[in-house]
Design goal:
This protein is about 35% helix and about 15% strand. The chain is built from 14 helices and 13 strands. The protein has helices spanning about 25-35, 50-65, 80-90, 105-120, 120-125, 160-170, 180-190, 205, 220-225, 230-235, 265-275, 310-325, 330-340, 340-345, and strands at about 1-5, 5-10, 40-45, 70, 95, 140-145, 175, 195-200, 215-220, 250, 280-285, 300-305, 330. The radius of gyration is 24 Å and the shape is globular.
Length: about 350
């Protein structure tokens, strides 16, 4: 939803950590996974009720440097005990109350938002734009978007949409064109574009069309720079040279989608990599929240751009790979590498 003035937010109602049902283990595991992507947490507690579960949640959030707001759901308007007040006074908190005032909901939400704005990390509230360091105002940006079986009907995929918006926010000029019309587009421009950004799967075709002095990269590589540690992802490419037959490679998708027969992660990248290596390796797929616990079984992780998750979750996944000594890279880098275009597509990020 849109929570002004913060902007677009995702609200996740977890199962809690005090579940004692038959499904408690699975529910608690899913709740713990949510912490990986949480920028700000809201703990809803009953008045005069502070148990080991609330304490455990606070400890978990503090360990992850995640700010939180405590909401006392005082629908019975109980008097808060001295001991309870002493506990919650350490934190940012607010109480709900019963009210006949039709404006109370709005008053409560405004107070709620004010506290959120106060505690939300600056880097979350004012996120680094996708254009940061690569695009300036009034520059001309050509974005190459192939329309194939993987493209959603009547729409563009999310990273392309986000990039268009980022370019417009920068007051630059966005030109969107299919790969089949790219040459004609460039011929019709009075001046060369300041940068060309393409979908990774047409990188080889596009690099043969654009002039050598025009900066060039891919949507996926831009996301890698914006939402992950670029050097770690780039270093992950070196693991490709050490792969052996039957090594296991994880294709990590951040979203759940219906895979087409032309799917970039599940079909095209495995084919490209096997062709480059001259032999087959074993591929596993993880999608959405189902990022594997046991990463040590893999010789390489190839992650998508991460347009469906926030920076905190992307960094959490990257750190998990690093902690397990498993190299990790992303779709755009691996595709550029096997096509011999990596040096050029990362050039604008190498300072």
């Amino acid at each position: 939803m849109e929570l002004l003035p913060i902007g677009p937010v995702t609200l996740i109602d977890t199962a809690g950590l005090d579940d004692v049902s038959k499904l408690s283990k699975e529910r608690i595991e899913r709740t713990n996974k949510v912490f990986d992507s949480t920028d700000v947490a809201v703990i809803v507690a009953e008045p005069n009720c502070w148990t080991e579960y609330e304490t455990k949640i606070v400890e978990t959030l503090n360990k992850r440097n995640t700010p939180f707001l405590l909401v006392i759901n005082n629908y019975k308007e109980q008097e808060l005990a001295k001991e309870f007040r002493e506990i919650i006074s350490k934190y940012d908190f607010m109480e709900t109350e019963l009210s006949d005032d039709k404006n109370y909901r709005e008053i409560f939400i405004n107070k709620f938002k004010q506290i959120l704005i106060k505690i939300i990390p600056e880097e979350v509230l004012n996120q680094k734009p996708l254009t940061d360091g690569i695009i300036s105002s009034f520059q001309t940006v050509v974005m190459v978007v192939p329309i194939d079986l993987g493209a959603p009907k009547g729409r563009l995929i999310l990273p392309q949409v986000q990039m268009v918006r980022a370019v417009l926010d920068e007051s630059a000029i966005a030109i969107v064109v299919k790969d089949t019309e790219l040459k004609k587009c460039l011929d019709n421009l009075k001046n060369k574009p300041d940068i060309v950004i393409c979908d990774s799967q047409v990188v080889k075709k596009v690099i043969d069309i654009i002039p050598e002095d025009v900066p060039f990269t891919t949507f996926s590589i831009i996301f890698s720079s914006n939402r992950a540690d670029f050097k770690t992802m780039l270093n992950g490419i070196n693991a490709v040279k050490n792969l052996k037959p039957d090594d296991k490679v994880l294709i990590a998708e951040a979203c759940s989608h219906h895979a087409s027969k032309d799917d970039i992660g599940r079909v095209k990248i495995p084919k490209m990599l096997s062709k480059y290596l001259g032999f087959d390796v074993k591929f596993d797929i993880s999608a959405g929240m189902d990022y594997p616990k046991d990463l040590k079984q893999y010789s390489l992780i190839i992650h998508c751009g991460g347009c469906m998750i926030n920076k905190k979750q992307m960094i959490s996944r990257l750190n998990c790979a690093v902690e397990n000594n498993v190299p990790i890279t992303n779709y755009g880098m691996i595709i550029s590498f096997v096509n011999g275009t990596l040096e050029r597509t990362i050039k604008i990020f190498i300072k």
